[in-house]
Structure formats: structure tokens, C-alpha cells
Amino acid sequence: MGESGCGKTTLGKSLLNLLPGITSGRVLLDGVNLGTLNGEALRRKRADMQIIFQDPFAAMNPRMLVGDIIAEGLDALRNGLDAETRKRRIAELLALVDLPEDSALRYPHEFSGGQRQRICIARALAVDPKLVVCDEPTSALDVSVQAQIIKLLKTLQQRQGLSYLFISHDLAVVAELADDIAVMYQGKIVELGSAAQVIKRPQQEYTQKLLAAVPVLARTNTQSSRS
Q: For a tag on the chain, would you pick the N or C end, based on fewer CB atoms within 10 A?
């Protein structure tokens, strides 16, 4: 987490080899150094790591049917599926994100912002990834819808056994989801620890300022320090 422009999204995309931003160090997934992969080896590994973008409408081709959007990963990485299996998998994914089966035959503009993000989540899960990078997936949504999407992500994590790299500038959202928190400032990680440690006992001045800017968390920390 960190303020806008600190490098969170760049880091997330670089980890997935979507940007050539890694100049040193290693990125390991299941013991495999992703930086050494290319061509077919990298393509096969992409099934293990997917991304959900911040703006769901911009992340979808408005001329494609929702069913085809969800199946983009299947078509690219599981292209041996027959038509019936593909259709059944799309229906399963729509049910997984609480959307009706007939959504597959509609276009993105026919859905609300929260529903579009559910479609993007379904697309990310289509190839059964192990890691999903969530790039501020709730920041473009109304507060009430944010809560629904967070609840869905938590449910899917438990049900599917997913790991999330959740990128956000909203500490309240991070506190709801995170096991561990890395705080970024001007392109560098300045604090790293368990969620409880970073939120209740922040060590860096920058983290302390972030916490102080969130009334609920600030009040919780004050009460915790007094008890």
C-alpha cells in the first residue's frame, strides 16, 4: 500500500512480467524464478498468475460478449477445450461471482460498475491461478459496492485457495484483507510486516501518517495503546 504514484502498480505488473521493470533481484513463484522464463515457458506459467485491474470497464473490450471476455484466458492458455466444455466453464465462473448465466450473452455496458468488476474477477479465475494481483480493484466503485467486492474476494480466497497481492492506497481496505503489509513510498518499500504489526505498531513516520489519516484506524490504534 501507499499513496498514488509511489510505484505500487508498476511493481505489481513487473512481478507478472507485464512490464520490463525489474532491474535486480528475483521473483519466485513456487520456487521458479519468473525472470528467467520466456516464450512458451512463460506462457504456461501465466496460468498460475492473473491480474484484476482498477477500472473494470477499461479492462474489457466493449465489443465483446461477456462470455468471450471471461473465456479470454481459457482460449489463450487452455485452447484445447471443446465448445460445450468452454460454455460450461463460463457458466461456472459466472455463478462463482454471483452473476446469472445469461450474462454471458450481454455486453459490458449493460452492467453496473460492481458487476463489471465481478466479470473481471471471473476472467482472472478462469485458468485456476494460484496468485492474483488485485490492482486497486475497489477504488473505482461506490463505498457500498466496495464492501460487496471485498466480501466476494475473501470468499473466493477461502474457497479457491488463492493468494492475493492486493494493491491499494486505502488502509481501511488493506486492513480488512491483508495478512502482511508492505508500505511503499517514492518507489521503495519502507515498512514490511504482519498486518497487525504494521497497523498497531507502525515503525516508520510515513506509515504513522498514513494511519493517522484514517479516522477509524487511528482511533483503534489509540485505544490499543491505552489498553
A: C
181 three-state secondary structure: strand
Pairing of the two strands 32-33 and 49-52: unpaired
Instruction: Read off the pLDDT of residues 171-188 as tens digits, 9 standing for 90 and up.
Output: 878 888 899 999 999 989
Q: Which helix (H) or strand (E) holds 152?
A: helix 143-160
What is the phi/psi pair of residue 181, to 5°? Answer: -130, 135
DSSP 46: G
With beta carbons less than 8 A apart as the criterion, state whether 8 and 2 touch.
yes
Phi-psi category of 98—alpha, beta or left, where left has phi over 0 and alpha has psi -120 to 50? left
Closest CA to 68 of 24, 104, 42, 41: 104
Amino acid at 224: S
Classified as helix, coil or strand, 104 is helix
**Burial (CB count <10 Å: 0-12, 13-18, 19+), residue 1:** buried
Confidence of residue 113 (pLDDT cuts 50, 70, 90): very high
| This prediction's pTM | 0.88
CB within 8 A of 199, min separation 6: which ones? 171, 175, 181, 211, 217, 220, 221
Q: Which cell numbers hold the place of 62?
A: 466493449
Between CA 134 and CA 18 the distance in angstroms is 14
Rg, Å, the chain Cα set:
19
pLDDT of residue 213: 79
DSSP state of 54: S
